[in-house]
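Progress report, Aim 2. The chain analyzed during this reporting quarter is listed below.
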Amino acid sequence: MKRTLTATLFAVMLASTTALVPAVVMAETPAVASMDTSLADVYSRVSLGVVRINVIKKSYAEIVEEEREKKENGEDFYLPPSERGDRDDDDNDRQKGEKDKDKDSEKGEEPKYDWQKKKRNAATGTGFFINHDGLIVTNEHVVRDAARFVVVLKDGRRIRAELVGKDFLTDLAVLRVTMPEGVKPLSWGNSHAIRIGDPVFALGYPYGFDQSLTTGVISGKQRELSKGKYNPYLQTDTAVNKGNSGGPLLSMDGKVVGVNSALYTRSGGNEGLAFSIPAEHAQGIIDLLVKDGEIKRGWFGIGYTEVKPGIGDLLGMSENEGMLILRTPDDEPAYAAGIRAGDVIVAVNGETVTSRLHFRMQAASVKGETTVTVWRDGEYHSFTLIPDDMDEAKSRRRQAEHEKFAPTDKDDGRKKVIGLDLVPANAKAWEKLDLPQGTKGLVVDRMDKMGQGDQAGFEKGDFITRINDVDMITPADFEKVLKQALENDAPYALVYFKRDGQDWTKVVDTLSMVDLEDY
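Predicted structure tokens for the chain:
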């Protein structure tokens, strides 16, 4: 049998602004002082503050019932069971070769038998004390779907714990126990100051083993992952395996510089690519979780992409900077503030936008009136935006798609370009798309499945008004502009169009086009 290894990003059950505040660029100074004490001495000082977290998971039946109730009450449910691909089965102490009778249940698929639906699975992760009030930090995916928590100290003492708060988007959670005697909480270090190449070590309970120490270095900073999109991760080659999640990444003086959260692996185990949530970022999230039990984030209500090299020139910018707005639905905060598709956001509350991750964190952290600076038509403009709450906004956006319309007459001036049947605007289009009479543009009447237009993201019913600075009146205009882009090796073309009554902007990768024919 041919075996295919697929690279997988694990939110591993080793375990989990102002963190919500953007990562701040700070001068990097050595975070690790020269010490005479050995690592063994440091370990003996901090090890009792790092704990195993045993979790009894809710059964499949309990999870389904909770989600059904939330849905009936109009609340956001966490995830439908069919999408639960990670049920943290990596921390069950199952030996190789043992038959996985409850495998379907653990992976989130509907179990075949009633006993499987009622079965509560066990999992384990790592956490660490952060103060004398008994607060323990771990990962959100460690505590997810939990019915009970038991904290186990290195010396074998066991303590029941309660959940204080958790946050899915940063993979952080906080538990509370009655503070045990003789345990010293860990101290936070400076993850801003730690440098690539600085030595670090991790403590945790990999694969259900007793507490283990592994060493390595910081391999990278400000990493962005598909999971935990609101974290500027530290990357390390320190051996971090399943069961280490939620454990500390420490500098060589024993201070926490990160919370271990994820690993990238082809084999399922450590391959030298582990990721930790930076200490300063984690502290802000944790403070909010302790205070409110949850995280509230701002919502602009836009689609955006980075201004890549070549796009800035098309927009008349001296530098490729900021976030290009692709769409601004008219019922969202950005539209109400006056921001439109095609604008480039270059600053939020006076702070320059430096990357996609940075902007995501900026937008999430703001509350109340927010000043957004954009580049439009060769000038900078400032708008006052009042963000929505992210959770409420996402719930509100759940609505049925509008039916797509396009005229069907065959003698209507249509032409196929990159697999799109383009038709000049006519009376039927103006009526169905609720556009003023005489509006110039092209309607996407039909499209070839998996053609260049389909792969570029266009949809039937899109109303194309402009490419770069050229208005679209006939399909020949569309063809001419793209043909010029191909001949001049232009990397991108900016297509402006309307979809469901909203203005959109699409970045078309013309450099990757072979020709204007469909294929």
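The mean pLDDT is 81. The first strand starts at residue 8 and ends at 10. These observations will guide the mutagenesis work planned for the next reporting period.
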